[in-house]
């Protein structure tokens, strides 16, 4: 149990924690700086660990940076006496469990305190991260990506499940390729949106890159997370994407949902059936003879194979009467009528 005391500390005397696990964005620093410059007394106290004769900043790096930029020499602080630097790093981890976390720095910090061999040292949510390893090329790419993102976005966060999944890939080249695809998927999102693929999407990416023999065929089966907030597009939009790109395909997953997968970027989107569009009209090579795709529910109703379907264009009441007269007495017919808008 830690015992904290309130006090004041000169910012110039502070040493940073050896492993700063938080990400500091330019926008957030600017916001805190404005407060520090006009009302420094409103800045919340920082937390300082006293280890021997040295003072280590273990929480409040953003606040301390803003105060320093505003030429404020001192800060209110919560002071705690600790035995060694390892204990200070552990406290730094515990005080920064939420917000924008740098997973690479977190992995380094966990390794430093020995969390891999002693899982009880930190929260259970860090267990997978503590066991992972990032090769140098993968690590450098992620560090550069996060540094660039911190300049563009107000909030930057790489979820633990993403870092843990990437760090669990042992093969160096496979890990690097997966990292590259995941980061490209984030870059390809809208400018105002910073979001990583969901756990299900990551599984699809990792499985698709796993080395396999030439004669081996792999079936990717996954279950989307309940309540997933991934990208959602309409069925019509999905069909348009497939029609216009060599890289997009539609996958029917085991739960019965359709998913759009870009085989180049491995981006995955869920597809919702249009409420108003009950069918998709696909133009063939001859515009006069378009292909018509109807939903499975209509096929079930027709109780017929696709090859036995008959498509009839009705242009007038006379055409409809002609169709009706072609049926023999007592014959049964099931029809799906598509009306133009």
Query: What is the average per-residue confidence, as pLDDT, rounded to a whole number?
Result: 76
Quickly give the CATH architecture of the largest domain: Alpha-Beta Complex
Structural class: alpha/beta
Highest-level CATH class of the largest domain: Alpha Beta
Please name the CATH topology of the largest domain: Conserved hypothetical protein from pyrococcus furiosus pfu- 392566-001, ParB domain
* Helix and strand sequence: EEHEEHEHHHHHHHEHEEEEEHH
Range of strand content = 15-25%
CATH superfamily of the largest domain: Conserved hypothetical protein from pyrococcus furiosus pfu- 392566-001, ParB domain
Number of folding domains? 3
Number of strands: 11
Question: How would you describe what is shown here?
Answer:
This protein has helices at residues 26-38, 61-69, 85-95, 103-113, 127-131, 136-152, 160-167, 172-187, 199-209, 235-244, 296-302, 317-325, and strands at 4-10, 14-16, 46-51, 54-59, 74-81, 232-234, 248-252, 258-262, 268-272, 280-282, 291-293. The chain is of the alpha/beta class and 341 residues long. The protein folds into three domains: 4-201, Conserved hypothetical protein from pyrococcus furiosus pfu- 392566-001, ParB domain, CATH 3.90.1530.10; 231-276, no CATH class; 278-341, no CATH class. β3 (46-51) and β4 form a beta hairpin. The protein is elongated and about 100 Å long.
Question: Strands, helices and their partners?
Answer:
Blueprint: E1 4-10, E2 14-16, H1 26-38, E3 46-51, E4 54-59, H2 61-69, E5 74-81, H3 85-95, H4 103-113, H5 127-131, H6 136-152, H7 160-167, H8 172-187, H9 199-209, E6 232-234, H10 235-244, E7 248-252, E8 258-262, E9 268-272, E10 280-282, E11 291-293, H11 296-302, H12 317-325
Parallel strand pairs: 2-4, 3-5, 6-9
Antiparallel strand pairs: 1-5, 3-4, 7-8, 8-9, 10-11
């Amino acid at each position: 149990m830690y015992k904290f005391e309130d006090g004041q500390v000169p910012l110039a005397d502070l040493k940073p924690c050896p492993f700063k696990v938080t990400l500091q964005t330019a926008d957030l620093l600017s916001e805190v700086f404005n407060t520090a410059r006009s009302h420094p007394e409103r800045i919340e106290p920082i937390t300082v660990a006293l280890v021997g004769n040295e003072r280590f900043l273990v929480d409040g790096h953003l606040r301390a940076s803003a105060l320093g930029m505003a030429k404020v020499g001192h800060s209110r602080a919560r002071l705690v006496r600790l035995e060694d630097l390892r204990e200070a790093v552990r406290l730094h981890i515990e005080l920064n469990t939420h917000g924008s976390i740098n997973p690479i720095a977190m992995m380094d910090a966990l390794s430093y305190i020995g969390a891999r061999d002693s899982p009880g040292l930190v929260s259970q949510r860090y267990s997978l991260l503590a066991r992972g390893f990032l090769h140098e090329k993968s690590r450098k790419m992620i560090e550069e990506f996060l540094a660039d993102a911190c300049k563009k976005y107000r909030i930057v966060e790489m979820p633990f499940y993403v870092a843990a999944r990437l760090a669990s890939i042992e093969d160096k080249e496979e890990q690097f390729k997966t990292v590259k695809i995941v980061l490209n998927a984030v870059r390809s999102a809208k400018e105002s949106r910073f979001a990583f693929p969901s756990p299900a999407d990551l599984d699809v990416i990792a499985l698709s890159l796993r080395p396999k023999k030439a004669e081996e065929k792999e079936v990717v089966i996954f279950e989307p997370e309940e309540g997933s907030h991934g990208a959602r597009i309409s069925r019509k939009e999905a069909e348009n994407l497939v029609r216009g790109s060599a890289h997009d395909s539609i996958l029917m997953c085991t739960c019965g949902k359709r998913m759009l997968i870009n085989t180049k970027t491995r981006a995955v989107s869920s597809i919702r059936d249009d409420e108003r569009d009950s069918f998709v009209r696909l133009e063939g090579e001859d515009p006069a003879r378009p292909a018509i795709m109807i939903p499975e529910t209509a096929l079930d109703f027709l109780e017929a194979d696709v090859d036995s379907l008959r498509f009839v264009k009705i242009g007038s009441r006379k055409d409809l009467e002609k169709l009706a007269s072609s049926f023999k007495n007592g014959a049964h017919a099931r029809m799906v009528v598509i009306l133009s808008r």
